[in-house]
Amino acid sequence: MMPDVQEFLQIDAPALLAAVLACAACALVGNFLVLRRQGMMGDAVSHAILPGIVGGFLVAGTRETLPMMLGALAAAALAGLLIEAVRRLGRLESGAAMGVVFTVMFAAGVVMIEQASAGGVDLDADCVLYGQLETILWLAPKGWASLADPAVWAALPREVLTLAAVFALCVALVGLFYKELKITTFDPALASTLGIPAGLFHYGVVLLVAATAIAAFEAVGSILVIAMLIAPPAAARLLTDRLAAQILLSVALGVLAALAGYGAAAFGPMLLGASHSLNAAGMIAVASGLILALAVLFGPRHGLLGRRRAVGRLRDTSGFIAPEAQKP
Amino acid sequence: MQYLWRTPGSRTAPEEASPIGPPPLEIRGLTVAYHRRPVLWNVDYAAPPGGLIAVVGPNGAGKSTLIKACLGLVPSVSGTVEVFGRPIARQRRLIGYVPQRESVDWDFPVSALDVVAMGRYGKIGWFRPVTRAHKEAALHALERVGMADFAKRQIGQLSGGQQQRVFLARALAQEAQLYFMDEPFAGVDAATERAVLQVLRDLDAAGRTVICVHHDLQTVSDYFDHALLLNTRVVAQGPVARVMTPDLLSRTYGGRPMPAPAAAAEEAEAS
Protein backbone atom coordinates (compact mmCIF):
# COMPACT_ATOMS: atom_id res chain seq x y z
CA MET A 1 0.00 0.00 0.00
CA MET A 2 2.61 2.62 1.03
CA PRO A 3 5.41 3.01 -1.50
CA ASP A 4 8.83 2.09 -0.14
CA VAL A 5 11.17 4.71 1.32
CA GLN A 6 13.65 4.87 -1.50
CA GLU A 7 10.94 5.35 -4.10
CA PHE A 8 9.36 8.09 -1.98
CA LEU A 9 12.67 9.92 -1.54
CA GLN A 10 13.64 9.63 -5.20
CA ILE A 11 10.31 10.40 -6.86
CA ASP A 12 7.89 12.06 -4.43
CA ALA A 13 10.24 14.04 -2.19
CA PRO A 14 11.81 16.20 -4.95
CA ALA A 15 8.41 16.85 -6.54
CA LEU A 16 6.95 17.74 -3.15
CA LEU A 17 9.89 20.01 -2.37
CA ALA A 18 9.53 21.77 -5.70
CA ALA A 19 5.78 22.16 -5.24
CA VAL A 20 6.09 23.42 -1.66
CA LEU A 21 8.82 25.95 -2.55
CA ALA A 22 6.97 27.16 -5.65
CA CYS A 23 3.71 27.58 -3.73
CA ALA A 24 5.41 29.31 -0.80
CA ALA A 25 7.28 31.76 -3.04
CA CYS A 26 4.24 32.55 -5.20
CA ALA A 27 2.01 33.02 -2.14
CA LEU A 28 4.57 35.34 -0.52
CA VAL A 29 4.88 37.77 -3.43
CA GLY A 30 1.21 37.30 -4.36
CA ASN A 31 0.21 39.18 -1.20
CA PHE A 32 1.44 42.43 -2.68
CA LEU A 33 -0.33 41.82 -6.00
CA VAL A 34 -3.62 41.14 -4.21
CA LEU A 35 -3.26 44.14 -1.89
CA ARG A 36 -2.33 46.41 -4.80
CA ARG A 37 -5.41 45.12 -6.65
CA GLN A 38 -3.15 43.90 -9.42
CA GLY A 39 -4.01 40.21 -9.42
CA MET A 40 -4.22 40.43 -13.20
CA MET A 41 -0.53 41.30 -13.25
CA GLY A 42 0.32 37.77 -12.09
CA ASP A 43 -1.71 36.38 -14.95
CA ALA A 44 -0.05 38.74 -17.40
CA VAL A 45 3.52 38.14 -16.23
CA SER A 46 3.26 34.35 -16.05
CA HIS A 47 1.94 34.20 -19.62
CA ALA A 48 4.08 36.92 -21.15
CA ILE A 49 7.35 35.26 -20.12
CA LEU A 50 6.73 32.25 -22.38
CA PRO A 51 8.31 33.66 -25.57
CA GLY A 52 11.32 34.70 -23.49
CA ILE A 53 11.72 31.20 -22.06
CA VAL A 54 11.43 29.62 -25.49
CA GLY A 55 13.76 32.23 -26.97
CA GLY A 56 16.35 31.65 -24.26
CA PHE A 57 16.07 27.92 -24.82
CA LEU A 58 16.46 28.23 -28.60
CA VAL A 59 19.44 30.58 -28.35
CA ALA A 60 21.29 28.50 -25.74
CA GLY A 61 20.16 25.15 -27.15
CA THR A 62 19.91 23.63 -23.67
CA ARG A 63 17.49 23.61 -20.76
CA GLU A 64 19.93 25.40 -18.49
CA THR A 65 18.14 27.75 -16.09
CA LEU A 66 20.20 30.87 -16.74
CA PRO A 67 19.49 31.56 -20.44
CA MET A 68 15.80 30.75 -19.96
CA MET A 69 15.72 33.01 -16.89
CA LEU A 70 17.36 35.86 -18.80
CA GLY A 71 15.01 35.42 -21.75
CA ALA A 72 12.00 35.39 -19.43
CA LEU A 73 13.15 38.51 -17.58
CA ALA A 74 13.62 40.28 -20.91
CA ALA A 75 10.12 39.21 -21.95
CA ALA A 76 8.69 40.41 -18.62
CA ALA A 77 10.34 43.81 -19.09
CA LEU A 78 9.10 43.97 -22.69
CA ALA A 79 5.59 43.08 -21.49
CA GLY A 80 5.73 45.88 -18.92
CA LEU A 81 6.73 48.42 -21.57
CA LEU A 82 4.12 47.17 -24.05
CA ILE A 83 1.34 47.25 -21.43
CA GLU A 84 2.26 50.84 -20.57
CA ALA A 85 2.45 51.79 -24.27
CA VAL A 86 -0.92 50.17 -25.12
CA ARG A 87 -2.50 51.81 -22.08
CA ARG A 88 -1.24 55.28 -23.03
CA LEU A 89 -1.57 55.17 -26.81
CA GLY A 90 -4.86 53.27 -26.82
CA ARG A 91 -6.15 55.14 -23.73
CA LEU A 92 -7.26 51.80 -22.29
CA GLU A 93 -7.58 50.85 -18.64
CA SER A 94 -4.62 48.80 -17.49
CA GLY A 95 -6.57 45.51 -17.22
CA ALA A 96 -7.50 45.69 -20.89
CA ALA A 97 -3.96 46.62 -21.89
CA MET A 98 -2.60 43.65 -19.91
CA GLY A 99 -5.18 41.34 -21.48
CA VAL A 100 -4.10 42.32 -24.98
CA VAL A 101 -0.36 42.14 -24.35
CA PHE A 102 -0.14 38.89 -22.42
CA THR A 103 -2.39 36.90 -24.76
CA VAL A 104 -0.43 38.07 -27.80
CA MET A 105 2.90 37.26 -26.16
CA PHE A 106 1.70 33.88 -24.91
CA ALA A 107 0.41 33.04 -28.39
CA ALA A 108 3.77 34.05 -29.86
CA GLY A 109 5.44 31.72 -27.37
CA VAL A 110 3.18 28.81 -28.33
CA VAL A 111 3.90 29.41 -32.03
CA MET A 112 7.63 29.45 -31.25
CA ILE A 113 7.31 26.14 -29.38
CA GLU A 114 5.42 24.53 -32.26
CA GLN A 115 8.07 25.72 -34.71
CA ALA A 116 10.87 24.49 -32.46
CA SER A 117 9.36 21.06 -31.83
CA ALA A 118 8.81 20.69 -35.56
CA GLY A 119 12.58 20.96 -35.71
CA GLY A 120 12.91 18.09 -33.27
CA VAL A 121 13.53 20.15 -30.13
CA ASP A 122 12.40 18.75 -26.79
CA LEU A 123 9.88 21.35 -25.61
CA ASP A 124 6.11 21.07 -25.69
CA ALA A 125 3.10 23.20 -24.92
CA ASP A 126 1.62 20.86 -22.31
CA CYS A 127 4.48 21.27 -19.88
CA VAL A 128 3.99 25.04 -20.11
CA LEU A 129 0.50 24.75 -18.67
CA TYR A 130 0.92 21.83 -16.25
CA GLY A 131 4.64 21.86 -15.55
CA GLN A 132 6.49 18.62 -15.06
CA LEU A 133 6.54 17.91 -11.35
CA GLU A 134 6.40 14.17 -12.09
CA THR A 135 9.67 14.23 -14.02
CA ILE A 136 11.72 15.87 -11.24
CA LEU A 137 13.88 13.07 -9.87
CA TRP A 138 16.40 12.97 -7.02
CA LEU A 139 18.43 9.84 -7.55
CA ALA A 140 20.97 10.38 -4.77
CA PRO A 141 19.12 9.20 -1.62
CA LYS A 142 18.97 5.47 -1.00
CA GLY A 143 17.06 5.58 2.28
CA TRP A 144 16.44 7.74 5.36
CA ALA A 145 20.03 7.21 6.58
CA SER A 146 21.52 8.61 3.37
CA LEU A 147 19.92 12.03 4.12
CA ALA A 148 22.70 12.66 6.65
CA ASP A 149 25.19 12.83 3.78
CA PRO A 150 25.67 16.40 2.46
CA ALA A 151 26.57 15.05 -0.97
CA VAL A 152 23.01 13.71 -1.28
CA TRP A 153 21.62 17.20 -0.67
CA ALA A 154 24.07 18.70 -3.14
CA ALA A 155 22.59 16.40 -5.77
CA LEU A 156 19.11 17.90 -5.40
CA PRO A 157 17.51 18.51 -8.81
CA ARG A 158 18.24 21.87 -10.44
CA GLU A 159 14.56 22.93 -10.36
CA VAL A 160 14.40 22.50 -6.59
CA LEU A 161 17.64 24.45 -6.04
CA THR A 162 16.43 27.29 -8.28
CA LEU A 163 13.11 27.46 -6.45
CA ALA A 164 14.86 27.42 -3.08
CA ALA A 165 17.08 30.31 -4.16
CA VAL A 166 14.12 32.34 -5.43
CA PHE A 167 12.12 31.64 -2.27
CA ALA A 168 15.09 32.77 -0.16
CA LEU A 169 15.37 35.92 -2.30
CA CYS A 170 11.67 36.69 -1.81
CA VAL A 171 11.91 36.19 1.95
CA ALA A 172 15.01 38.38 2.15
CA LEU A 173 13.55 41.23 0.08
CA VAL A 174 10.16 41.22 1.79
CA GLY A 175 11.93 41.11 5.16
CA LEU A 176 14.35 43.93 4.34
CA PHE A 177 11.77 46.20 2.72
CA TYR A 178 8.70 45.17 4.71
CA LYS A 179 8.00 48.68 5.98
CA GLU A 180 8.49 50.25 2.55
CA LEU A 181 6.39 47.59 0.78
CA LYS A 182 3.63 48.22 3.31
CA ILE A 183 3.51 51.99 2.84
CA THR A 184 3.99 52.00 -0.95
CA THR A 185 1.17 49.47 -1.24
CA PHE A 186 -1.22 51.28 1.11
CA ASP A 187 -0.48 54.92 0.27
CA PRO A 188 2.05 55.44 -2.54
CA ALA A 189 1.46 59.21 -2.51
CA LEU A 190 2.47 59.59 1.13
CA ALA A 191 5.41 57.26 0.53
CA SER A 192 6.62 59.53 -2.28
CA THR A 193 6.39 62.63 -0.10
CA LEU A 194 8.55 60.83 2.49
CA GLY A 195 11.17 60.17 -0.18
CA ILE A 196 10.38 56.47 -0.70
CA PRO A 197 10.41 55.71 -4.45
CA ALA A 198 6.89 54.25 -4.79
CA GLY A 199 7.23 53.79 -8.56
CA LEU A 200 10.41 51.78 -8.13
CA PHE A 201 8.68 49.54 -5.60
CA HIS A 202 5.86 48.98 -8.07
CA TYR A 203 8.30 47.74 -10.69
CA GLY A 204 10.23 45.85 -8.03
CA VAL A 205 7.11 43.91 -7.07
CA VAL A 206 6.38 43.13 -10.73
CA LEU A 207 9.97 41.98 -11.28
CA LEU A 208 9.90 39.80 -8.17
CA VAL A 209 6.63 38.25 -9.37
CA ALA A 210 8.28 37.66 -12.75
CA ALA A 211 11.35 36.02 -11.18
CA THR A 212 9.14 33.81 -9.01
CA ALA A 213 6.88 32.89 -11.93
CA ILE A 214 9.90 31.99 -14.07
CA ALA A 215 11.42 29.76 -11.40
CA ALA A 216 8.10 28.08 -10.65
CA PHE A 217 7.05 27.83 -14.29
CA GLU A 218 9.24 24.93 -15.32
CA ALA A 219 8.36 22.82 -12.31
CA VAL A 220 4.69 23.50 -11.77
CA GLY A 221 3.46 25.26 -14.95
CA SER A 222 1.63 28.51 -15.50
CA ILE A 223 -1.81 27.45 -14.21
CA LEU A 224 -0.46 26.68 -10.77
CA VAL A 225 1.64 29.88 -10.73
CA ILE A 226 -1.46 31.99 -11.36
CA ALA A 227 -3.49 30.11 -8.76
CA MET A 228 -0.74 30.34 -6.14
CA LEU A 229 -0.12 34.06 -6.65
CA ILE A 230 -3.75 34.83 -5.82
CA ALA A 231 -5.56 32.08 -3.90
CA PRO A 232 -3.45 31.73 -0.72
CA PRO A 233 -3.09 35.52 -0.15
CA ALA A 234 -6.80 36.04 -0.83
CA ALA A 235 -7.70 33.26 1.62
CA ALA A 236 -5.28 34.61 4.24
CA ARG A 237 -6.77 38.10 3.87
CA LEU A 238 -10.14 36.66 4.90
CA LEU A 239 -8.65 35.07 8.01
CA THR A 240 -6.80 38.03 9.52
CA ASP A 241 -6.69 41.84 9.61
CA ARG A 242 -2.91 42.07 10.15
CA LEU A 243 -0.53 42.37 7.22
CA ALA A 244 2.29 40.36 8.82
CA ALA A 245 -0.14 37.63 9.88
CA GLN A 246 -1.66 37.59 6.39
CA ILE A 247 1.74 37.09 4.77
CA LEU A 248 2.78 34.25 7.11
CA LEU A 249 -0.62 32.62 6.83
CA SER A 250 -0.62 32.82 3.03
CA VAL A 251 2.71 31.01 2.87
CA ALA A 252 1.39 28.36 5.28
CA LEU A 253 -1.77 27.91 3.18
CA GLY A 254 0.34 27.66 0.00
CA VAL A 255 2.42 24.90 1.60
CA LEU A 256 -0.75 23.18 2.81
CA ALA A 257 -2.22 23.28 -0.70
CA ALA A 258 1.00 21.82 -2.13
CA LEU A 259 1.05 18.94 0.35
CA ALA A 260 -2.67 18.21 0.16
CA GLY A 261 -2.81 18.56 -3.63
CA TYR A 262 0.25 16.42 -4.23
CA GLY A 263 -0.95 13.80 -1.77
CA ALA A 264 -4.37 13.67 -3.41
CA ALA A 265 -2.82 13.41 -6.89
CA ALA A 266 -0.18 10.79 -6.08
CA PHE A 267 -1.95 8.60 -3.53
CA GLY A 268 -5.64 9.45 -3.86
CA PRO A 269 -6.37 7.28 -6.94
CA MET A 270 -4.36 4.44 -5.40
CA LEU A 271 -6.61 4.50 -2.33
CA LEU A 272 -9.61 4.26 -4.64
CA GLY A 273 -8.06 1.26 -6.36
CA ALA A 274 -7.07 3.02 -9.59
CA SER A 275 -3.61 2.34 -10.96
CA HIS A 276 -2.74 5.75 -12.43
CA SER A 277 -2.07 9.01 -10.57
CA LEU A 278 -3.52 12.45 -11.26
CA ASN A 279 -1.70 15.57 -12.48
CA ALA A 280 -0.10 16.99 -9.34
CA ALA A 281 0.05 20.66 -10.36
CA GLY A 282 -3.61 20.56 -11.31
CA MET A 283 -4.59 18.99 -7.97
CA ILE A 284 -2.55 21.56 -6.03
CA ALA A 285 -4.39 24.37 -7.83
CA VAL A 286 -7.70 22.67 -6.98
CA ALA A 287 -6.62 22.36 -3.34
CA SER A 288 -5.78 26.09 -3.19
CA GLY A 289 -9.21 26.86 -4.65
CA LEU A 290 -10.86 24.69 -1.97
CA ILE A 291 -8.89 26.45 0.76
CA LEU A 292 -10.07 29.82 -0.58
CA ALA A 293 -13.68 28.55 -0.69
CA LEU A 294 -13.42 27.43 2.94
CA ALA A 295 -12.00 30.83 3.93
CA VAL A 296 -14.87 32.59 2.13
CA LEU A 297 -17.38 30.47 4.05
CA PHE A 298 -15.79 30.25 7.48
CA GLY A 299 -13.46 33.27 7.78
CA PRO A 300 -13.87 34.72 11.29
CA ARG A 301 -14.80 38.29 10.39
CA HIS A 302 -15.03 38.42 6.60
CA GLY A 303 -16.44 34.96 5.96
CA LEU A 304 -20.11 34.56 5.03
CA LEU A 305 -20.96 32.76 8.29
CA GLY A 306 -18.83 35.09 10.41
CA ARG A 307 -20.62 38.07 8.95
CA ARG A 308 -23.99 36.60 9.91
CA ARG A 309 -22.74 36.12 13.44
CA ALA A 310 -21.51 39.72 13.53
CA VAL A 311 -24.94 40.97 12.46
CA GLY A 312 -26.44 38.83 15.24
CA ARG A 313 -24.10 40.38 17.80
CA LEU A 314 -25.00 43.84 16.57
CA ARG A 315 -28.68 43.02 17.09
CA ASP A 316 -27.98 41.78 20.62
CA THR A 317 -26.15 44.94 21.64
CA SER A 318 -28.31 47.48 19.85
CA GLY A 319 -31.54 46.28 21.44
CA PHE A 320 -32.88 45.39 18.03
CA ILE A 321 -35.34 42.53 18.40
CA ALA A 322 -35.50 40.18 15.48
CA PRO A 323 -39.09 39.76 14.14
CA GLU A 324 -39.17 36.05 14.91
CA ALA A 325 -38.21 36.73 18.54
CA GLN A 326 -41.26 38.95 19.02
CA LYS A 327 -43.67 36.10 18.42
CA PRO A 328 -45.18 34.74 21.65
CA MET B 1 19.74 55.94 6.83
CA GLN B 2 17.23 58.57 5.80
CA TYR B 3 14.94 58.34 2.83
CA LEU B 4 16.58 60.60 0.28
CA TRP B 5 15.45 60.11 -3.23
CA ARG B 6 16.63 61.85 -6.39
CA THR B 7 19.03 63.95 -4.31
CA PRO B 8 21.57 61.51 -2.90
CA GLY B 9 24.13 64.28 -2.43
CA SER B 10 22.02 66.43 -0.14
CA ARG B 11 22.73 65.00 3.26
CA THR B 12 22.92 68.31 5.09
CA ALA B 13 20.39 68.94 7.85
CA PRO B 14 17.31 70.86 6.70
CA GLU B 15 17.25 74.46 7.83
CA GLU B 16 14.92 75.37 10.66
CA ALA B 17 12.18 77.84 9.88
CA SER B 18 12.86 81.34 11.10
CA PRO B 19 10.61 84.41 11.00
CA ILE B 20 12.95 86.27 8.70
CA GLY B 21 13.94 83.28 6.60
CA PRO B 22 12.43 82.25 3.28
CA PRO B 23 8.65 81.61 3.20
CA PRO B 24 7.35 78.14 4.12
CA LEU B 25 6.17 77.68 0.55
CA GLU B 26 7.04 79.66 -2.54
CA ILE B 27 5.55 78.78 -5.93
CA ARG B 28 6.77 80.54 -9.06
CA GLY B 29 5.15 80.21 -12.47
CA LEU B 30 3.73 76.76 -11.83
CA THR B 31 1.87 75.26 -14.80
CA VAL B 32 0.44 71.74 -14.79
CA ALA B 33 -1.39 70.05 -17.66
CA TYR B 34 -3.27 66.77 -18.05
CA HIS B 35 -3.52 65.55 -21.63
CA ARG B 36 -2.35 68.98 -22.85
CA ARG B 37 -5.21 70.74 -21.05
CA PRO B 38 -3.90 73.21 -18.46
CA VAL B 39 -5.11 72.46 -14.93
CA LEU B 40 -2.93 75.10 -13.29
CA TRP B 41 -1.72 78.11 -15.23
CA ASN B 42 1.25 80.20 -14.17
CA VAL B 43 0.56 80.06 -10.44
CA ASP B 44 2.65 82.36 -8.23
CA TYR B 45 2.21 82.12 -4.49
CA ALA B 46 4.21 82.74 -1.35
CA ALA B 47 2.69 81.38 1.86
CA PRO B 48 3.07 83.59 4.94
CA PRO B 49 5.01 81.92 7.77
CA GLY B 50 2.82 80.33 10.43
CA GLY B 51 -0.87 80.39 9.76
CA LEU B 52 -3.82 78.48 8.42
CA ILE B 53 -4.30 78.92 4.69
CA ALA B 54 -7.39 77.76 2.78
CA VAL B 55 -7.19 76.90 -0.91
CA VAL B 56 -10.64 77.71 -2.28
CA GLY B 57 -12.16 77.26 -5.71
CA PRO B 58 -14.78 75.38 -7.75
CA ASN B 59 -14.57 71.73 -8.77
CA GLY B 60 -11.86 71.25 -11.36
CA ALA B 61 -10.11 74.46 -10.33
CA GLY B 62 -6.89 72.53 -9.68
CA LYS B 63 -6.89 72.71 -5.87
CA SER B 64 -5.78 69.12 -5.26
CA THR B 65 -3.46 69.34 -8.25
CA LEU B 66 -1.79 72.38 -6.68
CA ILE B 67 -1.00 70.41 -3.53
CA LYS B 68 0.14 67.36 -5.49
CA ALA B 69 2.34 69.47 -7.75
CA CYS B 70 3.90 71.17 -4.70
CA LEU B 71 4.65 67.71 -3.27
CA GLY B 72 6.07 66.48 -6.58
CA LEU B 73 3.31 63.88 -6.99
CA VAL B 74 2.25 65.17 -10.41
CA PRO B 75 4.70 66.46 -13.02
CA SER B 76 4.63 70.18 -13.82
CA VAL B 77 5.12 71.69 -17.26
CA SER B 78 7.04 74.63 -15.85
CA GLY B 79 7.66 76.54 -12.66
CA THR B 80 9.44 75.98 -9.36
CA VAL B 81 8.32 75.12 -5.85
CA GLU B 82 10.47 75.87 -2.83
CA VAL B 83 9.90 74.93 0.79
CA PHE B 84 11.74 77.19 3.25
CA GLY B 85 13.94 78.35 0.39
CA ARG B 86 15.01 74.98 -1.00
CA PRO B 87 13.60 72.42 -3.44
CA ILE B 88 11.11 70.06 -1.84
CA ALA B 89 13.28 66.98 -2.42
CA ARG B 90 15.70 68.39 0.17
CA GLN B 91 13.03 69.38 2.67
CA ARG B 92 10.95 66.23 2.93
CA ARG B 93 11.29 66.02 6.70
CA LEU B 94 9.70 69.46 7.06
CA ILE B 95 6.55 68.43 5.20
CA GLY B 96 3.39 66.68 6.35
CA TYR B 97 0.64 65.47 4.04
CA VAL B 98 -3.01 64.53 4.55
CA PRO B 99 -4.33 63.10 1.26
CA GLN B 100 -8.03 62.81 0.45
CA ARG B 101 -9.61 59.99 2.40
CA GLU B 102 -10.79 58.26 -0.79
CA SER B 103 -7.23 58.01 -2.12
CA VAL B 104 -6.45 54.79 -0.23
CA ASP B 105 -7.96 51.33 0.19
CA TRP B 106 -9.43 51.17 3.70
CA ASP B 107 -9.78 47.37 3.47
CA PHE B 108 -5.99 47.20 3.80
CA PRO B 109 -5.04 44.84 6.67
CA VAL B 110 -3.49 47.36 9.05
CA SER B 111 -4.58 48.93 12.35
CA ALA B 112 -5.09 52.63 12.98
CA LEU B 113 -1.81 52.66 14.92
CA ASP B 114 0.02 51.08 11.96
CA VAL B 115 -1.26 53.81 9.65
CA VAL B 116 -0.24 56.59 12.05
CA ALA B 117 3.18 54.97 12.47
CA MET B 118 3.66 55.38 8.70
CA GLY B 119 4.02 59.10 9.43
CA ARG B 120 7.22 58.19 11.29
CA TYR B 121 8.81 56.23 8.41
CA GLY B 122 10.61 59.34 7.14
CA LYS B 123 12.37 59.59 10.51
CA ILE B 124 13.06 55.86 10.72
CA GLY B 125 14.66 55.33 7.30
CA TRP B 126 15.72 52.23 5.42
CA PHE B 127 16.12 48.77 6.98
CA ARG B 128 15.12 49.83 10.50
CA PRO B 129 12.02 48.53 12.23
CA VAL B 130 9.35 50.71 13.84
CA THR B 131 10.64 50.96 17.41
CA ARG B 132 8.66 51.31 20.62
CA ALA B 133 9.46 55.04 20.76
CA HIS B 134 7.94 55.56 17.32
CA LYS B 135 4.86 53.55 18.28
CA GLU B 136 4.46 55.72 21.36
CA ALA B 137 4.74 58.86 19.25
CA ALA B 138 2.05 57.41 16.96
CA LEU B 139 -0.19 56.61 19.93
CA HIS B 140 0.28 60.13 21.24
CA ALA B 141 -0.78 61.51 17.86
CA LEU B 142 -3.90 59.32 18.01
CA GLU B 143 -4.64 60.72 21.49
CA ARG B 144 -4.51 64.25 20.11
CA VAL B 145 -7.35 63.47 17.70
CA GLY B 146 -9.33 61.50 20.30
CA MET B 147 -8.70 58.13 18.66
CA ALA B 148 -6.42 56.38 21.18
CA ASP B 149 -9.15 53.85 22.02
CA PHE B 150 -9.24 52.73 18.38
CA ALA B 151 -5.49 52.19 17.98
CA LYS B 152 -5.78 48.42 17.49
CA ARG B 153 -8.86 48.58 15.24
CA GLN B 154 -8.49 47.57 11.61
CA ILE B 155 -8.97 50.78 9.62
CA GLY B 156 -11.88 49.42 7.56
CA GLN B 157 -13.96 49.17 10.73
CA LEU B 158 -13.72 52.88 11.48
CA SER B 159 -16.31 55.45 10.42
CA GLY B 160 -15.41 57.98 7.72
CA GLY B 161 -14.80 60.68 10.31
CA GLN B 162 -12.60 58.37 12.38
CA GLN B 163 -10.61 57.46 9.27
CA GLN B 164 -10.09 61.17 8.60
CA ARG B 165 -8.80 61.61 12.15
CA VAL B 166 -6.39 58.71 11.67
CA PHE B 167 -5.01 60.49 8.59
CA LEU B 168 -4.68 63.68 10.60
CA ALA B 169 -2.89 61.83 13.41
CA ARG B 170 -0.49 60.39 10.84
CA ALA B 171 0.36 63.92 9.69
CA LEU B 172 0.88 64.98 13.31
CA ALA B 173 3.23 62.03 13.76
CA GLN B 174 5.30 63.47 10.91
CA GLU B 175 6.15 66.46 13.18
CA ALA B 176 6.44 68.72 10.16
CA GLN B 177 6.78 72.48 9.76
CA LEU B 178 4.55 72.78 6.70
CA TYR B 179 1.37 70.73 6.26
CA PHE B 180 -0.59 70.07 3.09
CA MET B 181 -4.13 68.83 3.70
CA ASP B 182 -6.57 67.81 0.97
CA GLU B 183 -10.15 68.40 2.16
CA PRO B 184 -9.76 67.25 5.78
CA PHE B 185 -13.29 68.51 6.54
CA ALA B 186 -14.98 66.72 3.63
CA GLY B 187 -17.92 64.54 4.69
CA VAL B 188 -17.03 64.27 8.38
CA ASP B 189 -19.24 64.19 11.48
CA ALA B 190 -19.45 67.04 13.99
CA ALA B 191 -17.04 65.41 16.46
CA THR B 192 -14.42 64.98 13.75
CA GLU B 193 -14.93 68.53 12.52
CA ARG B 194 -14.20 69.79 16.05
CA ALA B 195 -11.17 67.51 16.36
CA VAL B 196 -9.73 68.60 13.00
CA LEU B 197 -10.28 72.26 13.87
CA GLN B 198 -8.60 71.82 17.26
CA VAL B 199 -5.58 70.22 15.61
CA LEU B 200 -5.36 73.05 13.07
CA ARG B 201 -5.43 75.61 15.90
CA ASP B 202 -2.79 73.70 17.86
CA LEU B 203 -0.55 73.60 14.81
CA ASP B 204 -1.12 77.30 14.25
CA ALA B 205 -0.27 78.06 17.90
CA ALA B 206 2.93 76.04 17.51
CA GLY B 207 3.94 78.24 14.56
CA ARG B 208 3.33 75.64 11.85
CA THR B 209 1.96 76.53 8.44
CA VAL B 210 -1.04 74.58 7.16
CA ILE B 211 -2.24 74.72 3.58
CA CYS B 212 -5.66 73.20 3.34
CA VAL B 213 -7.94 72.53 0.37
CA HIS B 214 -11.34 73.58 1.69
CA HIS B 215 -14.73 73.26 0.02
CA ASP B 216 -17.08 74.94 2.51
CA LEU B 217 -17.19 78.67 1.81
CA GLN B 218 -19.29 79.30 4.95
CA THR B 219 -16.49 78.31 7.31
CA VAL B 220 -13.41 79.65 5.51
CA SER B 221 -13.36 82.93 7.44
CA ASP B 222 -13.96 81.18 10.78
CA TYR B 223 -11.34 78.48 10.39
CA PHE B 224 -8.56 80.11 8.38
CA ASP B 225 -6.34 83.20 8.46
CA HIS B 226 -5.46 83.35 4.79
CA ALA B 227 -7.08 82.19 1.59
CA LEU B 228 -5.89 81.42 -1.90
CA LEU B 229 -8.70 81.70 -4.45
CA LEU B 230 -7.92 79.40 -7.32
CA ASN B 231 -9.50 78.67 -10.66
CA THR B 232 -6.74 77.25 -12.86
CA ARG B 233 -4.88 80.49 -12.12
CA VAL B 234 -4.70 82.47 -8.90
CA VAL B 235 -7.70 84.80 -8.67
CA ALA B 236 -6.77 86.37 -5.34
CA GLN B 237 -4.70 85.68 -2.23
CA GLY B 238 -4.32 87.26 1.19
CA PRO B 239 -6.01 87.53 4.60
CA VAL B 240 -9.53 86.09 4.57
CA ALA B 241 -11.11 89.45 5.42
CA ARG B 242 -9.63 90.92 2.27
CA VAL B 243 -10.17 88.08 -0.25
CA MET B 244 -13.40 86.37 0.86
CA THR B 245 -15.49 89.09 -0.77
CA PRO B 246 -18.57 88.52 -2.96
CA ASP B 247 -16.81 90.12 -5.90
CA LEU B 248 -13.67 87.98 -5.76
CA LEU B 249 -15.67 84.82 -5.02
CA SER B 250 -17.94 85.32 -7.99
CA ARG B 251 -14.85 85.85 -10.13
CA THR B 252 -13.48 82.55 -8.77
CA TYR B 253 -16.67 80.55 -9.14
CA GLY B 254 -18.50 82.46 -11.86
CA GLY B 255 -18.56 81.30 -15.46
CA ARG B 256 -16.67 78.44 -16.97
CA PRO B 257 -13.10 77.50 -16.03
CA MET B 258 -10.77 79.98 -17.67
CA PRO B 259 -8.64 78.29 -20.30
CA ALA B 260 -5.75 80.71 -20.56
CA PRO B 261 -4.67 83.82 -18.70
CA ALA B 262 -5.00 86.15 -21.69
CA ALA B 263 -8.58 85.08 -22.40
CA ALA B 264 -9.40 85.12 -18.71
CA ALA B 265 -8.06 88.63 -18.26
CA GLU B 266 -10.17 89.90 -21.17
CA GLU B 267 -13.18 88.18 -19.71
CA ALA B 268 -12.57 89.78 -16.31
CA GLU B 269 -12.22 93.25 -17.84
CA ALA B 270 -15.31 92.84 -20.00
CA SER B 271 -17.53 91.89 -17.04
Task: Throw out a few tags for this protein.
heterodimer, A: 328 residues, mainly alpha, ABC transporter involved in vitamin B12 uptake, BtuC, globular, B: 271 residues, alpha/beta, Rossmann fold, six-stranded mixed β-sheet, four-stranded antiparallel β-sheet, 10 helices, disordered C terminus
What top-tier CATH class of chain B fits best?
Answer: Alpha Beta
CATH architecture of chain B: 3-Layer(aba) Sandwich
The helix/strand series of chain A, from N terminus to C terminus, equals HHHHHHHHHHHHHHH
What letter string, H or E per element, gives the SSE order of chain B? Answer: EEEHEEEHHHHEHEHEEHHH
Assembly type of the shown chains?
heterodimer
In the sheet with the most strands of chain B, the strands line up as 6-7-8-3-9-10
Separation, N- and C-terminal Cα atoms of chain B = 57 Å
The share of residues in helices of chain A is over 70%
Which ranges of chain A are low-confidence, i.e. pLDDT below 50, for 5 or more consecutive residues? 318-328
Q: Say which CATH homologous superfamily of the domain at 5-143 and 150-220 in chain A is assigned.
A: ABC transporter involved in vitamin B12 uptake, BtuC
The number of helical elements of chain A comes to 15
- Beta-strand share of residues of chain B: 15-25%
- Given helix and strand content, the structural type of chain A is mainly alpha
Query: Would you give the CATH topology of the domain at 5-143 and 150-220 in chain A?
Result: ABC transporter involved in vitamin B12 uptake, BtuC
Mean pLDDT across all amino acids of chain A = 86
